[in-house]
Amino acid sequence: MRLESEKVTTNKNQQEMFIFLTDVRNYEQLMPESIQKFEPISDDTFLFQLKGMPEIHLQIKETNEPELVVLGSTSEKLPFTLNIHISEKGTEQSEVFMDFQGEFNAMMSMMIKSPLKKFINTLSENAAKL
Question: What are the φ and ψ backbone dihedral angles of 4, each rounded to 5 degrees?
């Protein structure tokens, strides 16, 4: 399954946004209001839980400075990546969009597609508010 967020413009330049997104503590600012738990585990890993959902552990799996941050699930039961693309948009702004890629069975895909799309759109919308 592949889902993409809307492209948003942020008030951070490309390098500033990359630095922001490579610090796992900053992801708490991007989370939806329905967040119940957020906890940095290490320099590259954090966990979060949304209302009515299980805990999800994410790890920074790859970076390509200053244009890409790849987050991946640490669970083999829910294998997915969230690629965050950052492009330059002037000297004081950047454009961000996220694409989610996961391997799920058809039933699981049907159940999570809509909430997942809403989740990645919320992450990108909150990045625009920074």
Answer: -125, 145
